[in-house]
């Protein structure tokens, strides 16, 4: 089951979080190749966060999946999620960081890859 944890310093008061969760679920499912019914999205707002020494709108995410991740998919996921955050929460793509964990590898050899949305443009 893919699980995407997103944290942002942006307040979610008055934000249509259902639209964010729905769009993100569809995006993750499509790009990873898993049914939407298996995708979990966790969205936390108003998290104290600094990026580049400022507290301007920013976001951090971790996506864990059993298979379905690879460098090409990760680039597409990073760009798509950054776009959602920019559109829905006004978080610039350059202030979003996403970390990937593919647990298909042996437990002792966890594969982790970090991508920064800025480098995906």
TrEMBL record:
Belongs to the MIF family. GO terms for cellular component: extracellular space. It comes from the Eukaryota. This is Macrophage migration inhibitory factor. GO terms for molecular function: phenylpyruvate tautomerase activity. Gene3D superfamilies: Macrophage Migration Inhibitory Factor.
């Amino acid at each position: 089951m893919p699980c995407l944890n997103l944290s942002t310093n942006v307040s979610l008061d008055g934000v249509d979080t259902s639209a964010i969760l729905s769009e993100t679920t569809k995006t993750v499912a499509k790009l990873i190749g898993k049914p939407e019914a298996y995708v979990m999205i966790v969205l936390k707002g108003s998290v104290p966060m600094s990026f580049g020494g400022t507290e301007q709108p920013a976001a951090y995410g971790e996506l864990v999946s059993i298979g379905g991740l690879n460098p090409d998919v990760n680039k597409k996921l990073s760009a798509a999620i950054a776009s959602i955050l920019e559109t829905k929460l006004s978080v610039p793509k350059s202030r979003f960081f996403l970390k990937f964990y593919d647990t298909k590898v042996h437990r002792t050899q966890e594969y982790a890859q970090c991508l920064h949305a800025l480098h995906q443009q």
